[in-house]
Amino acid sequence: MTSDGEKIQAPELLRKSLEEVQDLHKKLSRKERGSNNRKEAKRRLAKKYRQIDNQRKDFHFKLARRLFSRYDVVYIEELNVGAMKELWGRKVSDLGFASFVKILEHVAQKEGKEVRKIDRWFPSSQTCSDCSHRYEDLSLEERTWTCEECGSLHDRDLNAARNVLERALSSAEAGVRPSGAAARDATSK
Questions:
Q1: How far apart are CA 150 and CA 166, in angstroms?
Q2: Which domain range does residue 19 map to?
Q3: Which of 94, 118, 146, 183 has a Cα-to-Cα distance from 158 of 20 to 30 A?
Q4: The pTM is what?
């Protein structure tokens, strides 16, 4: 999500092709080892994975170009993708966040733009973007929450995006280069 409220929906390509992938795995496992039929089944499965990977890369490149057509600097949170995979498994792998960050940095370099990263330990979701009060009991299931101090209702993702932008701008004003990884721009607020 961007700090100006645009929700970017990932295509979840593996999830959409999961039935076909599972079917190809099943067909492969039923072929006799060393046979030409097994080699062909293996080739078909690899082709399907390549197709999914290419579609994901295409989405990532288009998204990176779209972001940099609107923004000169994109701020992202450095995320612990390994820990996220343990929690959410296949869904996190399907998003391909690490490859998106690499593509984002590649496109930024090519277009003379910038990607700046915000520390992963910054509590972007838990901090009210209006009054800076921290709601420490925010669970992962809570998609919206109301600030106990000022009464503001927050969408978790939009609030986090605004906090990432605010953190990045305050770091830039202080002359500190934010550390971290991907999707906020200084011109979007």
A1: 18
A2: 13-173
A3: 94
A4: 0.72
Q: Token match 């970017």: residue? A: 8
pLDDT digits (tens, 9 = 90+) for 170-184: 876 555 444 433 333
Q: Among candidates 31, 29, 24, 27, which has minimal Cα distance to 45? A: 24
Torsion of CA 166, 167, 172, 178, to 10 degrees: -140
- What single-letter DSSP state applies at residue 182? B
As a whole number of angstroms, the distance between CA 148 and CA 128 comes to 9
Counting the structural domains of the chain, the total is 1
Instruction: Say if residues 169 and 75 touch (Cβ distance below 8 Å).
Output: no
Q: How far is Cα of residue 109 from the mean position of the Cα atoms in its chain?
A: 19
Question: Do 183 and 2 touch, CB atoms closer than 8 A?
Answer: yes
Residue-wise pLDDT for 78-127, tens only, equals: 877 777 767 777 777 788 888 999 999 999 999 999 998 888 788 888 89
CB 125 within 8 A of CB 156: yes
Structure tokens at 53: 């990977």
- Burial code (b: 16+ CB inside 10 Å, e: under 16) for 80-92 equals ebeeeeeeeeeeb
Is 168 inside a domain boundary? yes
